[in-house]
Amino acid sequence: MLEAIQLTASYVKGLPIIKDINLKAKEEQITAIIGPNGAGKSTLLKTIYGFLKPENGKVIHRGEDITGKAPYTMLTRKIGYVFQGMAIFPLMSVQENLELGAWIKREEKGWLKKALNRVYDKHEFLLKNRKKKAGDLSGGQQKILEFERVKLSEPWTLLLDEPTAGLAPKLAYEVYKEIEFLKKEGFTVILVEQNLERAISLADYVYVLELGKNKEEGNKEKFLLNLEVLIRDWLRLGSKSKD
Ligand SMILES: Nc1ncnc2c1ncn2[C@@H]1O[C@H](COP(=O)(O)OP(=O)(O)O)[C@@H](O)[C@H]1O
Ligand SMILES: [Mg+2]
Hints:
This protein is of the alpha/beta class and 243 residues long.
């Protein structure tokens, strides 16, 4: 389990962007974080991962207190992060991108080849394009490459920040299928996602953030029933902030 307890963080001291956030992401479940633009979803992930040092509160991962630990230590702590936007190396080959993910396992001889074969067995397009520049893959394929790269570092927990942002619906659908698969593979997933309906139907448990605070939480059924109300609320909130 990954747990945030009373987590408060700011970019400018004294002006907290997230305030007293509580969240529990259980093992082998998808925990979705939803909320209007600017609610602090990305900031929460960044704080969990150590890019921002919290002013208050704790982050506990599988019993270990990782509050404020540096981001570069997170892979060895078995937490992977798929950033918003594209974070592959476009000029490197597909295979080189995957090998970077396996850097952490570089001392285990023979492991890489087997691990790469597993990836190639699963995604034929990666095998076919393994020598091509990663930047030549489609947007959805690049995202899947990124998932596979992060998985090669063998995390237990994955933080996904809007993995379908900017993707055409058909490509987004491929990425949603991958997210569903992550759960079957046994990862603990924290998913920030703009598409409410998708986020809620993928998730086991949902947190709603608003203005940097916990607004609501519950299992997916509760939110699926109230989807329309939720959307209407956010539209109202959006138009308010423009006044
Ligand atoms: N690097 C930054 N420096 C200062 N303020 C920031 C920074 N990044 C985000 N913010 C502000 O923090 C708030 C929450 O942003 P963010 O966490 O990105 O929201 P979300 O991911 O829910 O859309 C917004 O008001 C945004 O303007
Ligand atoms: Mg964001």
